[in-house]
Amino acid sequence: MDRLFHFPNMTQTLQVTGCHFGIKPPGWRYPRHHHHLYELICCLEGESVHEINRNSLTLRQGDWLLIKSGIRHESAAAASSYYRFFNVHFDLDDAEVRSVLGIAPYAHIPSESASRGKLTFYVQELEEMMRQYAAPDTHGDTSWREELNPRFEDRLLLQSYTLLIVRDVLALIRERDAYAGQVSSKEATLFAIDVAHAIEERLAGSFHEEATISAVAEELHLSRSQCSKLFSKVYGLSPKQYVSRRRLSLAKELLVTTNLPMTEIAERLGFQSASHFSRQFRRWTGQAPSDYKPKHDGCS
Question: What angle do CA 10, 12, 15 make, to 5 degrees?
Answer without folding.
Answer: 155
